[in-house]
Amino acid sequence: MPAPLRPVPVLALILLFFISFYEATLKPHLLGRHRVTRSLSQPRALSYKTLYFDQQIDHFGFLENGTFKQRYLVNDQHWHQKNGPILFYTGNEGDIEWFCNNTGFMWDVAEELEAMLVFAEHRYYGQSMPFGDESYSNAKYLNYLTSEQALADFAVLIKYLKKTTPGAQNSPVIAIGGSYGGMLSAWLRMKYPSAVIGALAASAPIWQFTDMVPCGDFYKIVTQDFASSGINCSKNIRRSWTAINNVLSTAEGLQWLSKEFGLCSPLKEEDVNDFKGWLQETWVNLAMVDYPYEANFLQHLPPWPIKVVCTHLQFDTGVSDKQLLHGISQAVRVYYNYTGSSVCLNISETATGNLGIRGWFYQSCTEMVMPMCTDGIQDMFEPEPWNFQAFSDECYGLFGVRPRENWAETVYGGKNIHAHSNIIFSNGGLDPWMSGGVTKSISDTLVAIIIPDGAHHLDLRFNNQHDPQSVISARTLEVNYFKRWIKQNASVR
To answer: Among 82, 86, 114, 298, which is disulfide-ready with 173 (CB 3.0 to 4.6 Å)?
Structure first.
């Protein structure tokens, strides 16, 4: 008999990287039409104009001819020359202002490249709602939430900007994105090569789809991160699932565990799977944000947070279940309560928050089918096989739609992308999403850059004095490719 499916993981396993971008605690405060914000890793204030474009709701049919206001942000303080370059961020599944304020690489290189910066919001996220407040009300309205429609939005917006901005008629445009946004930047170059001369796809798992990569590779990388950060660290996390089962077999154990973890609500028997899922998501997110400096990307965390977590998990195999789980509770607090300001921990508030989740649920339930599985042997998690039928049934129950398992390969080419050009695929060696990324160069113009000390799209973050040399070198190489593309574009005009 297959392992029972926990209430959310069939969907949650493929959601972690996408919804992790969009923590409510990180939403900056709006100051009129301009924004000025600071964060732990953002050394200066940023300013930009907030603009809106009347975008077509349906680019591929002719019956629905309505429009919506697509939001985009522009900074042109360093763009002084005629036909100067434009760096175009392909917005992810969230508020574009958040991505703008957390994609420091673009701000850091704008002056050197004399580039205009444009951050385009993805339809159905932030303020770019095709049907206003009704956009999420039913499957009929959600039908236009696809990556294909979003890519067409970006291509149309680029054409509009070049046509209406004085001096930009022949400006070379480079697409930049991280995570899902990185997938979109790569696909934008593939699908609309006349719109962008090249793309930087950071931590973009364009191959994390059916029959392209093994479903368990993601969790193997998570496990490796913990195994290399402390003696017995991953082994003790693997042992913790059995310890939880043993302790929670009694009413006294439920009470003890609730108190030990400082939970806001006492655990009930029916909460056990939710509790385990909460822990699993925590370990995954720590792997994604294992940055070399203090950061506030998902939570306020110390430098190299996994190493800090593992200081609490260096037990020998002979410790009792309660001793082991005490270490787990201390490790979890590194993620949720590093500052010591939390009164209690709430397992219903997941490690990645709640904003933007419904939109990505829908996208996952249609075209973005990303198989995930664990076996408890090559990884540190309880066994959970990939079950497409169960996944499909869950999607149908949520939205009345069923996923198209192989559609992403059909529409974007799968691993057969050698005919394309001018795309940089950067991946961090610590990032579990490297499992579905392009990690070897395919040609001279389809280039893979590996950042051994990098977690999730570290190269897109602001420069930091604690950056490892590997990410400094990666950024330099990325800018050199940009300059090469810009020069090549100028020579063929």
So the answer is: 86
